UniProtKB/TrEMBL annotation:
Belongs to the RRF family. It holds the Pfam family RRF. GO terms for molecular function: ribosomal large subunit binding. This is Ribosome-recycling factor. GO terms for biological process: cytoplasmic translational termination. Residues 21-184 form the Ribosome recycling factor domain. Signal peptide: none annotated. Responsible for the release of ribosomes from messenger RNA at the termination of protein biosynthesis. May increase the efficiency of translation by recycling ribosomes from one round of translation to another.
Amino acid sequence: MSIADIKKNADAKMAKSIEAFKNELQKIRTGRAHPGILDQVQVEYYGSMLPISQVANVSLIDARTISVQPWEKGMGAKIEKAIRESDLGLNPSSLGDLIRVPLPALTEERRKELTKVVRNAGEDARVAVRNLRRDANDQAKKLLKDKLISEDDERRSNDDIQKLTDRTIAEIDKLVQAKEAEVMAV
């Protein structure tokens, strides 16, 4: 393994960390509805737990209402129960085989709680990136110890990895600020 491989590997893993963080942010609900909110809700389907998106069509009716159309007749009650029992605080109502999920407006207190959740998720993402930096630096140290690179090469590699880490953490901070602004917007 060369220094270039270490940098490329660290860059790829940091990019994956940012993608995972973006997915985490999508799960945090704001005042507007989007179908991704229900992604983490699991429904019992013939003995196994599946996400709602695998047993029903999830779409938007308007800015504050999600519609869930089960693919099978008997699944409506199970889906409705799963949404109600999830920790999302949603109260679905059925109209025949269509389930409407209205999103209540967020209170100021709930918005502040959600910004704390966003900050914690951001800190978790930063910790993951720092761990990747440490791993990359350890790999460079091992190459130095095995006398495959010089001390100057190791120092340069550590500097490059630090720059990559700083860039990634700055991107995470931007995402956190944007999501906080989105959550606090009334």
